[in-house]
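Q: What would this chain look like folded?
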Amino acid sequence: MEEDKNKNNLGQAAGDGSKESQKSQDDSAQQKSDDEKSTDNVKQNAKKTYGSIRNYLIHLLDIRDETDRDSTMEAIIKDIPFRGHNAWILVFSIIVASIGLNVSSTAVVIGAMLISPLMGPIVGLGFSVAINDIDTTRRSLINLGVMVGLSVVTAFLYFQLSPLTELTPELEARTEPTILDVIVAIFGGLALIIAKTKKGTIASVIFGVAIATALMPPLCTAGYGLAVWDLSIFGGAMYLFTINTVFIALSTFVVSKVLKFPLVRYANSKRRKFIARSTYFIAVIAIIPSIYLFYKLLQESYFDQSAKLFVTEELASTGNNGFFLQTNSTHIEYNNGDNSLIEVAFLGKEIPEEVINIWKQKLGTYENLKNADLRILQNSNSDKFNEFRYMVELKRRDSLDLIEKQNKIAALESELQKVYVKKVDLPFAQIAQEIKLNYDEVSRVSFSEVLTSNFKKIDTIPSFQIMVKDSMSIERKNELASKIQKWLSYKLETKNLKVDVSLP
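A: My prediction, written as structure tokens:
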């Protein structure tokens, strides 16, 4: 009987355990189902949020609804011809811009760009290629040539008659394009064509693009290059103008395609195919060099940045070793990656060959400078500096001899007279020139011999008087005097000298 009772208890316990296990499984399944529902809800909410953001951005950035295709096409074609009023406006604006460049007046140049009608043929070229209109393409190219020719001839005549023939900073800035010019041309062209396609053209955008892309100054600079017969200036200016023209036309082409302007239809299918192929051939011819040009300018920009970083990080902090970098004499020359040059000039002690070799090894560790050549320029006339050091040492010994022999005042005056005669041979002009190159704030340098006495002995000390251009704080004055004295000490190999900085 006890055995039956135990069996019943075991069976009941097993049944209770089975029920608890089943309940646990049910709870686990319910939890899993709730988690899946929660995950699905999160995914649905994320999709709704993404859809809302996407729809908002499309609504914010969509320009197709406000695009007036008929009016845009009519306005672009109307602005292409250069005759009558447009021709005279162009001539006068070129003269105004040339005057601004000639006197280096940025305000005058900007004013000329505001009134110049240069954009018409360029926008017409990109637009006509996009809509497969060969007649408008031909007309745009002809008017673009007329515009360039008229602009260059006008600028040429002005600079031929102008008494001012100096190459100003405004003119020089238009002779060498950079990667920034390409970027400005691309985004300026995009802004221009989008403004033109809007119902009710945004005039302020057109004026802003005319200033930003700066089409007119390069043409004026090209005329200046012909007037002074400097073909490098002419070529650089036309190169910059070509970059701006190509990328503005390319931006116009892209936007016109995106907005799906209707293509020009031709009755003759063979003629239509020929024209379509011709226009796309022209587009490809313009795009391929543009891509290469963009890549080339990008590489040049990388090289310039790396070269400046190398000079700053590796060469500029060498003053404690007795040689000083002339930062305003650094020359960086990019030659398409081959035989590119970094040329730097140093003052002070002669740089050991081992140090130069270490710099050249470090140059190769910079990604964009592996094929560059480092050229170090040092003091070219060390004999004169050796002579200068010898003369300073000689005067010091002369003064010691005077102390030892207790010469009379007459003998001392005679010795000083000899010193004044010897000073004619000192390379003072060379030292003054190096101070001028290395310290822009210095306006004048004087040198003299100073007799000093501590009532036990008399000594002759080289004394340099430095006059600065503008007033400066006492701290800055002391810092400048310390730097120059430190440099002269290394140069003359003596610490027995004096440097005074005078304020204006």
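Residues 381-390, 418-425 have pLDDT under 50 and may be disordered.
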